[in-house]
Amino acid sequence: MAEIKQGIIIGFLGKTQDRFSEYQRPVSTEEKLDFVSKIDGFTGVEMVFPYENGEPEETRAWMSKYRLEFAAINVNVKKEAEWVPGALSRPDQGIRDRAVVMIKKAKDFAKAVGAPHVTCCPLSDGYDVLFQINYKTAWRYMVETIGEAADYLPEIPLFIEPKYSETRVHCQIDSTAKGLLLLKDVQCKNTGITMDMGHSLQSQENPAQALSLIYESGYDAYIHTNDNDTKADWDLVGASRHFLHYVELMFWALEYGYNKYFTTDASPRIFDVLEFFNRHSEITRGAYKLAKSLDRQQIQEMMRVEDYNGLMKMVNKDIYRI
Ligand SMILES: [Mn+2]
């Protein structure tokens, strides 16, 4: 098994804001890439299209200047004013069509810069109150729009990132299982699920089990790392609240031969940006190494014979080291 590859959603390296405060300062994409190369062990970049990229040629030149690779292109279909209340599931065909065009353009861009896939988190699709949207048409439009975007340029697979809440109070694709149901309806094999650890926790899932379900359903998986308190998507530094979940996720990622980037979707907010990501890098690399060091054969045998006590002992001794 190869060494872990770590990447970062570079949007977090510039100015971010929530309802109350603004954090850090605005920086150019090239400055963000320069910064990525300074974080211990980070080589991958997830860039938000169409807001952070330059023309394909100049973007490729920036990437090679800082010796970075694309982990993914993240297509944003929620920022434009008409998409703030939703994009891919809206009743207005023009709104839906323009969102599909944006995903197709992101695929063209990914191909032009040599990025492996496009990921889309349809955060604004969903509802805030009851009797707000037509569930029947919202689902059908979602299958139709994602289907059209998935079928386009199949050599660049489309990954869908589920999330329970935010920006809508209840997002349309609110769990890993819902994402998989969507992909099954879409019937395009060049698709996958972006399993964001924090989103999975917010959906009351176990991220390791969610990852396994994606693979067992016959789809590809891409992992975003972070942590939260399970109530909201706080994008905390990795393993700061769910250490054992983090190690278990790594264990199952290794089991399935996961070889894509582990991409940080964590937000420094009040913390020093470089040191925040160095700590994230450190714990992610450490958890991966720890998961790799476990006696896989013995663990599987204990699971087979249902030796729960032996497994708990393994957790105490080999993971917590107490
Ligand atoms: Mn994410």
Keywords for this entry:
322 residues; alpha/beta; TIM Barrel; two-stranded antiparallel ribbon; 11 helices; binds manganese (II) ion
Question: What would you note in describing this structure?
Answer:
This protein has 322 residues and is α/β, with parallel strands linked by helices. It has a single domain (6-294), classed as Alpha-Beta Barrel (TIM Barrel). Helix content is 43%, strand content 15%. The chain contains 11 helices and 12 strands. The strands form 3 sheets. The chain has an 8-stranded parallel β-barrel, surrounded by 4 helices. Strands 2-3 form a two-stranded antiparallel sheet. Strands 7-9 form a two-stranded antiparallel ribbon. α4 packs across α5 (176-186). The longest helix is centred in the N-terminal third of the chain and has 21 residues, at 93-113. The model has no long low-confidence stretch (mean pLDDT 97). Residues 161, 196, 224, 265 line the site of manganese (II) ion. Manganese (II) ion is lined by residues 161, 196, 224, 265.
